[in-house]
Design a protein that fits this description.
The radius of gyration is 21 Å and the shape is elongated. Helix 1 packs parallel to helix 5. The protein folds into 2 domains: 2-176, Formyl transferase, N-terminal domain (Rossmann fold, 3-Layer(aba) Sandwich); 185-263, Formyl transferase, C-terminal domain (Methionyl-tRNA Fmet Formyltransferase, Chain A, domain 2). The protein is 27% helix and 24% strand. It is an alpha+beta fold. The two termini are 33 Å apart. It has helices spanning 2-10, 31-39, 51-59, 99-104, 140-160, 162-167, 196-206; strands at 18-19, 44-45, 64-68, 81-86, 111-116, 126-131, 211-215, 218-229, 239-243, 246-251, 254-263. A 5-stranded antiparallel β-sheet has the order 7-8-11-10-9, covered by helices on one side. It has a 4-stranded mixed β-sheet with strand order 3-4-5-6, with helices on one face.
Length: 266
């Protein structure tokens, strides 16, 4: 979501500080965030923020705090404005990582929301939001990219008249709220007894994070796959072919083809 910051700078806004958190730069990334901070001579803080850090930012003229994909609960930022960009159509899809849930079972929560920071995570008043209907072959990567492409434009419009948008924000309907816990390893398991379409959904929901497959007694993280719908009488989980680093496995309704994976050890 660093594209949001680049767009705001392009619009003439001045960054005065950055908060991030430790990342492995394999599945989650902050290298570009650190580079951005260096380019603008900004402090880049990795620790959970406290009021002292917030005060230091406001003392330097910070008027708006904007978070996106941020791990920690943010303390009160008043008198500044506090905005969060959340990857779901709130109040459905609250939680740290809602996209896998959305792709698996909750398409009605697909979209993104810009809302006020509040005491309760993802429960702040809604400033603006957009629905993103899921494509038939939607993946965690493609849906994230669609949000990342659209969010900077929407936030840019809001920032042109933030007091107006802020005052017109609407409270969330708690009766419609859906809260998702962090995805579990069990959610990522490719159970070969499941229908092919469900296996495909699981793999698309976790993408480069990796779904989990048991193959010949070994657990592999699957990062890329294809499916081929076809009638057959082979038992689910049977390896049909292995060549060029790909493994084709029988499932109910066709074949699940693993194209990129690695064995998990330990």
């Amino acid at each position: 979501m660093l594209g949001i910051v680049h767009r705001l700078v392009q619009d003439g806004h001045e960054p005065v500080g950055l908060f991030t958190f430790p990342c492995d730069n394999i599945f989650n990334f902050n290298r570009d965030t650190a580079s951005f901070g260096k380019e603008f001579n900004l402090p880049v803080l990795l620790e959970k923020p406290h009021r002292t850090e917030i005060n230091a930012m406001t003392d330097k003229g910070a008027e708006v705090f904007i978070s996106a994909g941020y791990l920690y609960k943010i303390p009160d930022v008043s008198p500044a404005y506090g905005l969060n960009i959340h990857p779901a159509y709130l109040p459905k899809g609250r939680g740290l990582m809602p996209i896998p849930f959305i792709l698996l079972d909750y398409p009605e929560a697909s979209g993104f929301t810009i809302h006020k920071l509040a005491d309760e995570m993802d429960a702040g008043d809604i400033i603006a939001q957009e629905k993103l209907p899921l494509a038939d072959n939607e993946t965690v990567e493609s849906l994230s990219a669609r949000m990342a492409a659209r969010a900077p434009e929407l936030l840019s419009e809001i920032m042109k008249d933030l007091p107006k948008y802020w005052n017109e924000a609407k409270k969330q309907d708690e009766s419609e709220a859906l809260n998702f816990p962090p995805p579990s390893d069990q959610m990522r398991v490719l159970n070969w007894n499941l229908p092919l379409e469900r296996l495909d959904k699981i793999a698309r929901a976790f993408g480069h994070y990796g779904s989990l497959a048991s193959i010949e007694g070994h657990i592999r993280a699957v990062y890329k796959h294809e499916i081929k719908k076809e009638k057959h009488t082979l038992p689910p989980g049977k390896i049909v072919a292995q060549n060029s680093g790909e493994t084709s496995i029988a499932a109910d309704g066709g074949f699940f083809i693993i194209k990129k994976s690695e064995e998990i050890t330990g």
